[in-house]
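TA notes, week 10

Several of you asked for a full example with nothing omitted. So below is the full record: structure tokens for the whole chain, then the designed sequence directly under it. When grading your own attempts, check the secondary structure regions first.
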């Protein structure tokens, strides 16, 4: 979205951006965030960044060396489509403020080192990655683990297991057969409008979409493909992708999961 800090500052002023949402990733790969007022962002911010407590993040530092520094990557910015106040999201790299060196447990820095290593081998100068992030859309997800019992349950109005249940207004059938969900039109595909909403939000965030469709699985399996990129940018994109998919699904009163085999 931006090439340098001056473009960011101009955008914040011209568009009356209220907050900057600082994003980074913990060691297990879960994206974290916190906000700062956009009015506090100046030219120095792009070299000084923000400090945070690394001991409170899974897999990071011990309490006696907890100070971590976040430095922004302006090329990753996009407007958050879900916040009421206008909020600019930006991905940050993690550094050790005591040494000024990159933090070795930052997944983004690991990816950068992998790209440099590939180039140093002479095998190739660039590698491209295109994650195929299929996901399920469920209407209901329940689980519980107690000392005397445990269970989980997922449900979908499309599920083949629901052909015989009583439904409000009557069960109209049109359930997705087992392994029969690849490309059916409505009324079997009941998620087309939701998928369109997700796709439009992804496009607005800067992803180049290729196609979107219902996948093979019953119970709401989906696939949305977007253009490949280099390792670091592809990793940034998949986190953006998951964030948008999950939040749009929640707005529709549903749950999106990227579990490999939820059924």
């Amino acid at each position: 979205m931006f090439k340098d800090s001056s473009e960011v500052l101009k955008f914040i002023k011209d568009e009356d951006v209220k907050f900057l949402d600082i994003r980074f990733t913990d060691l297990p790969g879960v994206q974290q965030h916190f906000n700062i007022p956009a009015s506090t962002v100046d030219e120095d911010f792009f070299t000084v960044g923000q400090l945070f407590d690394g001991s409170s993040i899974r897999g990071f530092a011990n309490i006696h060396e907890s100070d971590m520094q976040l430095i922004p990557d302006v090329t990753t910015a996009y407007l958050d489509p879900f916040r009421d106040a206008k909020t600019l999201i930006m991905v940050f790299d993690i550094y050790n403020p005591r040494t000024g060196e990159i933090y070795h447990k930052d997944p983004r820095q690991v990816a950068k080192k992998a790209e440099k290593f590939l180039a140093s081998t002479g095998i190739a100068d660039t590698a491209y990655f295109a994650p195929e992030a299929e996901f399920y859309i469920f209407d209901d997800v329940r689980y519980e683990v107690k000392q005397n019992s445990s269970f989980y349950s997922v449900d979908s109005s499309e599920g083949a297991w629901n052909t015989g249940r009583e439904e409000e207004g009557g069960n109209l059938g049109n359930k997705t057969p087992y392994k029969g969900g690849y490309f059916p039109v409505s009324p079997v595909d009941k998620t087309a409008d939701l998928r369109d909403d997700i796709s439009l939000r992804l496009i607005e965030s800067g992803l180049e979409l290729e196609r979107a469709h219902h996948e093979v699985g019953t119970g709401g399996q989906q696939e949305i493909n977007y253009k490949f990129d280099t390792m670091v940018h592809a990793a940034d994109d998949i986190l953006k992708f998951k964030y948008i998919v999950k939040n749009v699904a929640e707005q529709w009163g549903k749950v999106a999961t990227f579990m490999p085999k939820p059924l």
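The chain has a mean pLDDT of 95. Use that as a sanity check on your answer.
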